[in-house]
Amino acid sequence: MLNATVAQLARALGRREISSVELARLFLARTQALNAGLNAFITIDPDRALADARAADARIASGERGPLLGIPLAHKDIFCTRGMLTSCGSRMLSNFVSPYDAGVVERMARAGTVLLGKTNMDEFAMGSSNESSWYGPARNPWDLARVPGGSSGGSAAAVAARMVPAATGTDTGGSIRQPAALTGVCGLKPTYGTVSRYGMIAYASSLDQGGPFGKSAEDLAILMNAMAGFDTRDSTSLERPDEDYARSLDVNLAGLRIGLPEEFFGEGIEPGVRRAVDEAVRWFEKAGAKTVRVRLPNARLAVPVYYVIAPAEASSNLSRYDGVRYGHRAAEYADLADMYRRSRAEGFGREVKRRILIGTYVLSHGYYDAYYLQAQKVRRLIAQDFAEAWRHCDLILGPTSPGTAFPLGANSDDPVKMYLNDIFTIPAPLAGLPGLSIPCGFDEAGLPVGLQLMGDHFSEALLLGAGHRYQQDTDWHLRMPRETPLDTGAGK
Ligand code: GLN
Predict the structure, then answer these.
(1) C-alpha 401 – ligand 1 centre gap (Å)
(2) Structure confidence by residue, pLDDT tens digits, 441-472
(3) Does the annotation mark 151 as catalytic?
(4) Catalytic residue chosen out of the listed positions 151, 155, 196, 437
(5) HSE (CB half, 13 Å, CA atoms) of 218?
(6) Dihedrals phi, psi of 116, to nearest 5 degrees
(7) Which of 19, 76, 216, 437 is catalytic?
(8) CA proximity to 52, closest of 118, 102, 117, 120
(9) Which of 36, 84, 129, 380 has the fewest C-beta atoms lying within 10 Å of its C-beta?
């Protein structure tokens, strides 16, 4: 059961082979046993999980069936959950119990999922390694001395270690796809505006997008069917008819044009990543897809552009944490200004402060035109590169990340080196485009490699279909991390 996909678990629940309460107990026991080593969860809530599971069992007993009814799930601790700590990985919110549910949390609850708890993350989703969390780093189940990626590292590690069959995350510059790649699971960053940002704590609002983690592309389609949809409470939510994200799972790859951007196959890619991705390209060619060379000439500017725009938006979004309305307040202060200063100095970590400083700098009078405005212009050029590419191909394929999971601390002294981890994941959100990461092999050290597929706006079903076809013929996505085998920890 622990290694089953959501699709398989739903079938077992529907046939009454197992109850939701039994399933919740199984995954809870494993989560509790493994979390001391992995630190994937900030909050584990057995009472909530069992209450949700009993409710799901009652719905099943009354004849109701649903692809997520009774399925255990974890939310990234960036999604507000009523009555539960919602910390965003920060000391600033380490005392914040949300009075309401995020749109995503509501939708998943309506679908009948069973909430096991909230997962670890980089502070305010700023990071690529989970090391900036106030709760300490989450660890990679393939090698506990290595990072799981970030910022949704806890969700990725939890799915990889089979603590939960599925989880949610958010991606601003790669935070779903990069940790999915580094932990050997699947993750989808949807088209901007597809998944509600209501109650999803804001980092960079023009980029932030929620999405699912799972073991297979098919599971991601099932999760998206529940997660996505119009929400009047999010002003950038798109009002479109509901779609079935599983509708293209049997897509015919023959004739599909897959673009290989030369910018994604250049220098700086680890040989193990290169080899696995090249092999996946050959698989798609054998399956009948046609590979074409495309160019994304401005992609090399994506990281610098992102590190102007994202901090600018963050500096504005994070101004709400003032120690007054909610969150951490300094115990001692001289006057009001001192209270703000001390509360923010104590509540935010180093990386968050760095971003606030950069953000206020690039927005300040005299620098706005030179940095922020310029970055917005280049952002448009990057989007135009993609628009041009879609005239020649249906999908773009490349590595998700230039390397596999790195040791804890390896990039801590060099923020730019850390930022370069996202060189292949940042372009898509700058253009609002969807991106999928699926496992495609291992490097020589036995660490998972992620393959990224990107498409035009609203091409999620096609991306998931291409991923599903690949997964019907390969089993990379079903491999288990060696540090968390099924027979250690509780549960089987
Ligand atoms: N690593 C990137 C950053 O630190 C992306 C994070 C994200 O997608 N939330 O901003």
Answers:
(1) 13
(2) 999 999 999 999 999 999 999 999 999 999 99
(3) yes
(4) 151
(5) 18
(6) -85, -30
(7) 76
(8) 117
(9) 36
What pLDDT does 490 receive?
A: 45
First-last CA distance in the chain: 7
What's the CA-to-centroid distance between 124 and ligand 1, angstroms?
Answer: 9
Q: Which of 152, 155, 175, 401 is catalytic?
A: 175
Position 303, amino acid: V
Q: How many domains does the chain have?
A: 1
Q: E strand or H helix at 27, and its extent?
A: helix 20-38
The CATH number of the domain holding residue 70 is: 3.90.1300.10
Q: Is 125 a pocket residue for ligand 1 (Cβ < 6 Å)?
A: yes
Convert the pLDDT of each residue in 305-353 to its tens digit: 999 999 999 999 999 999 999 899 999 999 999 999 999 999 999 999 9
- The neighbour count for residue 102, using CB atoms within 10 Å, is 27
Residues above pLDDT 90, as percent of the chain: 95
175 among known catalytic residues? yes
pLDDT band per the 50, 70, 90 thresholds, residue 492? very low
Q: In which domain, by residue range, is 71 found?
A: 1-492
CB of 173 closer than 6 angstroms to any ligand 1 atom: yes
- Any catalytic annotation for residue 206? no
